[in-house]
Amino acid sequence: MNARKEELIAKLRQDIIAWEGYRPPEAGSNVSLGLGPVETAFPNSIFPTGTIHEVLSATPEDTAACGAFLCGLLSRLLADGGACLWISWSRRIYPPALKRFGLNADRIIFVDVPIQKDVLWIAEEALKCEGVAAVICETTALTFMESRRLLLAVETSRVTGFILRKGVKNANSTACTARWQIRPVRSSLRPGMPGVGHPRWQVDLLKVKNGQPGSWTLEWKNKSFKVVTPQPTIQIQRRYA
Amino acid sequence: MPKRFAAIWFRYLLTDQLAIRRPSLREKPVAIVTLDHGRKVIVALNAKAIRSGLQTGMTVADAQVLLGDLQIFDDKPGRNLKLLKGLAEWCLRYTPLVAIDPPDGLLLDVTGCTHLKGGEKAYLTEIYQRLKDIGYDVRPAIADTIGAAWGVSRCASNGLLVTAGQHRNALMPLPPSALRLPTPLLLKLHELGLYQISSFIHMPKSVLRRRFGKDLVLRLYQALGQEAEFLFPLKEPVPYTERLDCLEPVKTRPAIEIALQDLLERLCKRLHSEGLGMRKATLTWYRVDGKSGHITIGTNHATHRSPHLFKLFFIHLDEVAPGLGIELFTLDADATEPLSNKQSDLWAGKPWADSEQVAELLDRIASRGEIRHYLPDEHYWPERSSKTDSISAQPQNDWREDKPRPIQLLEPPEPVEAMALTPDYPPKQFIHRGTRHVIVGADGPERIENEWWIDTNTQRDYFIVEDEQGRRYWIFRTTDRWFLHGYFA
């Protein structure tokens, strides 16, 4: 009896998600982006592609962490083929470094825009194009209306868009499907080892449509994301390399 | 089709141009003068001054004795060439092949163009009338050869339209000056009593050459069509071009869009039938008041899809200033390429950048942003480790992975104040833009030297450092100073 009830509730949950406008990804596409436990936060435990994600960063260090995190996601997203556009107004991303995150920079078309307000125009054009797999748009401000427009642009094209917002102090509300915040945290090595460890970030999923927001510490190791449970750091006398 | 040429002679080119700018000069005698050995000598006169007995080559002092109210203007060297070039561009509405004929004429290849205006007579009348409306007094003539048209326009009293095959008869009564000969030769002919071309046209070639040199023979036979002569057109004609004459001058945006669409469809149809695609195209418009302008677009990938090309032009259509109205549009395909009929990969999922959709997207974006595609380059120096190339280029070598590189690079590196306890060791802390970062972990140094064959020989010792809050930086030391060069993820 109990089992049937749970089954029913799970079924109803599915229906509600569908009524709320959630569309499952196309059959046969690569659904797992290698995020591991993070994916349980999404509806049906599938990373929502074909929609707009918003990534917040307050400082240039955060922007670097966000950029690396997105590169890690893109390396999986682009496995099926398709072009990828990186649109920015003041770009600092360093193409040779992308290889470390499993991405060849020659797969990405960088668009440098001299006028800041043209960034969103180009992003919208790119999001409407079906031959594109993913679009990353670096911008500072994004109003609700603008985010709504971008969301409408991907409605038919099913392109995945990432809005990387820089220098955000107080985030306004937007129509994006998910809102991420990524900050670098202390890397760890085996106790007693000098140097700097693998890139490690505090990944906060602040908002996700039809899903469960959450917070994880992720590490980029051997070209994939690993969830780590932060250990209380043992203060030892650090030595330099 | 037998060739037909038109010559247009601007009788008072420089003074007419002055009178267009200052209509009050129309009723007065005008002279344009230049300094020659300390004297002011007349180089151009208007009709009224010539009727009063003035001649070019007179000094101004002499002319002013004859005509007290003579208006005098200084000449600017090269002015006539500039004017002729402008007029030649204006004349492109009549034929695509227009050449400048200094000092005061234009030459047009009108083969197969005259029927557009309703025959040669109407064609000549229109050229005459339109230029007269602008303010130029011209004598246009059409004949089978360039030389005959030139001579008839300068020297014939009437019969400016020489029917096909009649140029020999038309040249007969003209003076030798109709043959574009140098002045000493003309004087010599005059002294000998050869006042008309008919007096020496029948002489044998060898006699003419012996007595008057090869110049006369060349010019005579060019005028008769027995020697080849070529025009040097102002603008090389483009093989793929379409033109649209408007019945009424258009000035509204929808009308301009319709004109563009019509031109694109016609041109694309032609390109399609020949299996070609456009890489670069220019839309030129000619306004009623003689001004013109153009828009040029380029594509990443040869295409003959008119809706896409229309979109590319559409972005720039605001630049079209119709003024009083546009009477002619031309569309040139400046660069064409054979279409690559690539079979799209059925199984590879979404295509990459060489797909048509993406290429069209990039064309649209190119108007607002700069598109860069990076390939690895074999340099250690961080600023040179990648190079930009065209979208279709494939990397020749792999991206290096053996050394960690920051995800964000500052260009140029920003100076920081750093404190290192021991020389050659990573700093204990550094201050960047007023913020103090205490370093808890560091890797390095990695020495990178500038290639001496490219730039001056400098070296940098790079450290990867992590501060207390887990933020990772790439800092380096030159001989005495520290710089922040990037952010690690």
Secondary-structure element string of chain A: HEHEEHEHEEEEE
Q: Judging from the principal axes of the Cα atoms, what is the shape of chain A?
A: globular
Helix content of chain B: 25-40%
Write down the domain tally of chain B: 4
Mean pLDDT of chain B: 86
Category by helix and strand content of chain B:
alpha+beta
Number of strands of chain B: 20
User: What's the tally of helices of chain A?
Assistant: 4
Structural class designation of chain A: alpha/beta
How many domains comprise the coordinates of chain A? 1
Strand order in space, largest sheet of chain A: 3-2-4-5-1-6-7-8-9
Protein name (chain A): Error-prone repair protein ImuA
InterPro entries (chain A): ImuA, P-loop_NTPase
Keywords (chain B): DNA damage
GO molecular function (chain B): damaged DNA binding
What does this structure look like?
- The complex is a heterodimer of chains A (about 240) and B (about 500).
- The longest helix of chain A is centred in the N-terminal third of the chain and has 18 residues, at about 1-20.
- The mean pLDDT of chain A is about 85.
- Chain A is α/β, with parallel strands linked by helices and about 240 residues long.
- The N and C termini of chain A lie far apart (about 65 Å).
- In chain A, α4 (about 145-155) links the parallel β4 (about 130-140) and β5 (about 160-165).
- In chain A, about 25% of the residues lie in helices and about 25% in strands.
- Chain B is of the alpha+beta class.
- Chain B has four domains: about 5-155, MutS, DNA mismatch repair protein, domain I (3-Layer(aba) Sandwich); about 165-225, no CATH class; about 240-340, DNA polymerase, Y-family, little finger domain (Dna Ligase, domain 1, 2-Layer Sandwich); about 405-485, no CATH class.
- In chain B, the strands form five sheets. Chain B has a six-stranded antiparallel beta barrel. A four-stranded antiparallel β-sheet of chain B has the order 5-6-1-7. In chain B, strands 8-11-9-10 form a four-stranded antiparallel β-sheet, with helices on one face.
- In chain B, β19 and β20 (about 480-485) form a beta hairpin.
- In chain B, α9 (about 205-210) crosses α10 (about 215-225).
- Chain B is elongated, with a radius of gyration of 35 Å.
- Chain B starts with a strand and ends with a strand.
- The model of chain B is unreliable at about 345-350 (pLDDT under 50).
- β3 (about 110) of chain A pairs antiparallel with β12 of chain B, so a sheet runs across the interface.
- Chain A: This is Error-prone repair protein ImuA.
- Chain A: InterPro entries: ImuA, P-loop_NTPase.
- Chain B: It comes from Mucilaginibacter limnophilus.
- Chain B: This is DNA polymerase Y family protein.
